[in-house]
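=== RUN LOG ===
request id: a7f3
mode: sequence -> structure
chains: 1
length: 350
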Amino acid sequence: MHSSITDIMSSDEGKDGGSKGASGKSSDSAREKGGFDSSLYVNMEVVAKCLGELKAARTAAPRTKINLSLDDINTVVNGMRDLFLKQPMLVETPVPITICGDTHGQFYDLLKIFEVCGWPPETRYIFLGDYVDRANQSIENMMLLLCLKATFPDDFHLLRGNHECASINRIYGFYDECKRRYNVRLWKTFADMFNCMPICGLIDGKILCMHGGISPELYDLKVIHNVKRPQDVPEFGLMCDLLWSDPEPELRGWAESERGVSYVFGYEVIEEFNRHHDLDLIVRAHQVVEDGYEFHANRSLVTIFSAPNYCGEFDNAGGLMQIDHDMVCSFKIIKPSDSRRPDFYYKGTQ
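=== RESULT ===
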């Protein structure tokens, strides 16, 4: 079935997601249904404890820090490292599903996303990376996502972004946050976990997701499974491209990126890529877009960016893409707000 795009649905209204995600019972139900059993890799009692503390922030004042126990954070992160290694580099998932782009440490905006689109297991998700840096609650942001992944391993997917890389988040805020709030060793623990995350997702065999973009080395989707883990993001090659490349409207073919890493690719490349792999759509993140989403190449590719008022300096909306049972795609929008001030965000241009 081919996917189709409906008009935008704009919303800032949340809906009650209840407390299903904090029960810690998903692992038992997963065993009963023959699904992935997170309890083999991560302590689900600790996951449930952390998830409860993080979800309690829904009633806290914005930007309130949630200071989880260092031991609990280490337990979850180390367990998730092992869990990611047991799941494929190319995540395959059915519809319906909601796709989320960059969130960059904007923890209270992440809570807003779940209020607007529904908490798991009510809503299935795939996140496209860049969970840390820029804003100053990357630890809460990452921990909420990891706990949800552990609780709902078959229906909640986290891909790696270019900021899930030690050489990048050493500079753009996450290292400083870990050092200030806990210690440098915690940053290294997160880095080891990032090196094990999947890098690509395939929805119903027709919609390919990644953080950055496509690669000239991606001649067969099966080669994604051959990427070794654990691995830091290399300076070139398939993994680098999937996390760093960008579409370029004015280009024909491929060219070196002005970022100094990977490539940019033209619209003809996108359309030919989709024909070759029998895809309906590529969904990626990685670039700020004013309306929260932006189409390219006759709607063959869409950029999703989910951090509203990025860095506290932009007036962009946050976008989320929803795909229903019939492969019809629509959007939820979190509007920009003057309440997100630059004083609370890191600066940078990466």
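=== NOTES ===
Residues 13-32, 345-350 have pLDDT under 50 and may be disordered.
The two ends are 38 Å apart (CA to CA).
=== END ===
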